[in-house]
Fold this protein.
Amino acid sequence: MARRVRGAGRAYSGKLKEAVQLLFFKHHRLPGVRGWELRQELGPEWLQVIEVLDNQLKMLDLKVSRVLDDPDIVDEPTRAQLMDARFYVTMRGSVDQKMAKTIGWRIDDIAGLAVAVAYIISKRGKASRLEVEKMLGEKLPGWRAKMNIDRYIEEGYLGEDERGSLYLEWRSRAEIDQKQLVDLVLAFGKRKAE
């Protein structure tokens, strides 16, 4: 009996190792991995393996995040939706100023992203690129606002449709706590009004 339990433990730790390799390393153009790929590699209990991995990542202030293809799904997703979802490893907490300097982005680039995301959220998920450029252009030079929006699109934070409308892309949905961002913007507005 004990031998069987040890064997199962080794098999499970092997699956955790596979899950880490799938989630941490870039396999395609986009980071992360689809649910169906995890199931293919980890087997039918892939969701439990991901849950165990997420618990182990807590001590490193990391978490396994999932992004569904349809951002409008608010209820618990179905198994089919989870198979199509993309899974990533992201930070559990927030980034302080010291850490922000080491990730390769200028502080005004990060602020511009926060403003762009907050503005798009306020417009119910879509805003004209020209409106966002104009708003960012009030604080940044015009060329820099255009360059930053292009970078946000290239990095997967924003998407642009054929009509020139910007929307939140997979990385914003995975890495940005949208509710907290809106709360911070509203709290700043209240402080400024007082």
Observations:
- The first strand starts at residue 33 and ends at 34.
